[in-house]
Amino acid sequence: MDRISCLPDSILCDILLYLTTKEAVCTSILSRRGRHLWKDLERNADSYPIQKFRLTCDTSEESISTWLDVVIGPHLQELYLHLFLSNVSITLPEGLFTCPSLKSLVLKEGIHFFDGFKVSNVYLPSLKNLEVEIPFVDFDELLSGCPAIENLTLDLKIYCFCIRKLHMPHTLKSLTFLEPSYFYEETQEICVRETYTLSLEYMNLRIVSTENAAIRVSVFDFPNMVEAHLSISDRAENDHWVLLLLQALNKTKFLVLKDSTAECMFCAPASKFPKFHCLLSLEVDVPCFNKSFMLKLLHNCHVLERLLINIPLLRPVEYYGPTPPTMVPNCVTSHLKSFEYRQYQDSADEPDFIAYVLQRGLVLKTVTIHVESDFDQSTKDDITRELSAIPEGSTICQLNFI
Q1: More confident position, 145 or 38
Q2: Distance of alpha carbon 41 from alpha carbon 29, whole angstroms
Q3: Which residues are within 8 A (CB) of 386 and not within 5 positions of it... i.e. 6 or more apart?
Q4: Cβ contacts of residue 30 below 8 Å, gap of 6+?
Q5: What whole-number distance in Å separates Cα of residue 106 and Cα of residue 133?
Q6: Domains of the chain: which residue ranges?
Q7: Mind listing the pLDDT tens digit for each residue in 310-351?
Q8: Distance CA 358, CA 339 (A)
Q9: Which residues in 108-214 belong to E strands, given as ranges?
Q10: Fewest CB within a 10 Å sphere: which of 87, 254, 290, 392?
Q11: Which residues are CB-neighbours of 202 under 8 A, at least 6 positions away?
Q12: How far apart are CA 42 and CA 285, in angstroms?
């Protein structure tokens, strides 16, 4: 005899509450009576309020809408939605944007807003984390309805719209703004108010600009910045704002410069060449290696401990920036512990720079050279032999070749 089936629904629901959602649904195959019993867990939401709901699926639109109607309410604190629906998108319930307890909202693909949606009706007083990958009309106004926001991620997978203006809340601590890698024809303007810069600690920007899509960023100061990732491709040759942005990052400790971000410094006057007083780790992509540029950069990184240089696509670019001082950078002699060089081409400046760092890096622990893979084995052996023969200033330095 099936004793479990004889139990009252209230007791069976209590048992199901100890299972995961997937396990509870699977119990529907155990008996005819239990086929729909798991759905009572939704209907008992007042007694057992759902605080966290994470859904990644490709099921029917009807099921997803039912689940959302159940979980969205005054007790919901975290919602994560990532849907894979063929030619179908889910419309978000209006009540989602007035949840008083919602702290984290992540909206990935396959989601749309309901017809007649007004951004001015959004009020999420407890929201601290917002991650969005879906088309939106007015992000600026959306953020005004999130007075406690601390972490913001806008990942624009496609250009369905244009962000004309984006003001960051003063509460923001982490900003990730990612554009697609291809171009579009609208004018892009991202404005940053001074009030928000005081608390920002993390920044990750991927921005593409063309002659028809100029970007203007109002930059002031980032006194609490800890880590910044910049991937800025400015095809409009209007890199003045990029230099201002780099200057404003003078307090950051970890910096990653991708794409053509570092290239704007190749023509920077001495007064605008950025200085990084607190920088501990630097990863920099350069269009081509230039010893004068790297030495000038090292002179302006006073306490740098880790340096990674990468040349992803060799593209000759002349350096017209300031001439570096003749003295050895303080970071090289006193702070630099790790140095990594990727896509080593064995060009005119490269062996000299490697020797410069090896001989004057008195506290170096590891130096790693990634030799260009297109070289034949004989050339690779010659490069390894020549660089290994360079005398090292540090007695504990380990030289590695990849």
Answers
A1: 145
A2: 17
A3: 351
A4: none
A5: 8
A6: 1-48, 262-402
A7: 998 878 889 999 999 999 999 999 999 999 999 999 888 999
A8: 9
A9: 111-113, 129-132, 151-155, 174-178, 188-190, 202-209
A10: 87
A11: 173, 174, 175, 176, 225, 226, 227, 228
A12: 52
Record the tokens describing residue 12, joined without a space.
């069976």
Question: Under a CB-based contact definition with an 8 Å cutoff, are residues 93 and 71 in contact?
Answer: no
> How far, in Å, CA of 301 to CA of 250, rounded?
9
- Are 365 and 333 in contact, with CB atoms under 8 Å apart? no
Q: CA 339 to CA 397: how far, in whole Å? A: 10
Quote the Cα angle for 342-247-151, to 5°: 80
Q: Which residues pair with 82 in a beta bridge?
A: 56
Cite the DSSP H helix spans in 59-108. Answer: 61-71
**Secondary element (H or E) of residue 293:** helix 291-299
Compute the distance between CA of residue 294 and CA of residue 21 in angstroms, rounded to an integer. Answer: 55
Q: CB–CB of 359/392 below 8 Å?
A: yes
The angle subtended at Cα 229 by Cα 226 and Cα 233, nearest 5°, is: 150
Please, how many CA atoms are within 13 Å of residue 46, restricted to the half-sphere of its CB?
Answer: 1
Report residue 188: phi and psi, to 5°: -110, 130
SS3 304: coil
Phi, psi of 162 (to 5 degrees): -130, 130
Burial of 64 (0-12, 13-18, 19+ CB in 10 A): buried
Residue found by looking up tokens 């410094």 in the block: 265
Q: How confident is the model at residue 18 (pLDDT cuts 50, 70, 90)?
A: confident
DSSP letters spanning 12-27: HHHHHTTS-HHHHHHG
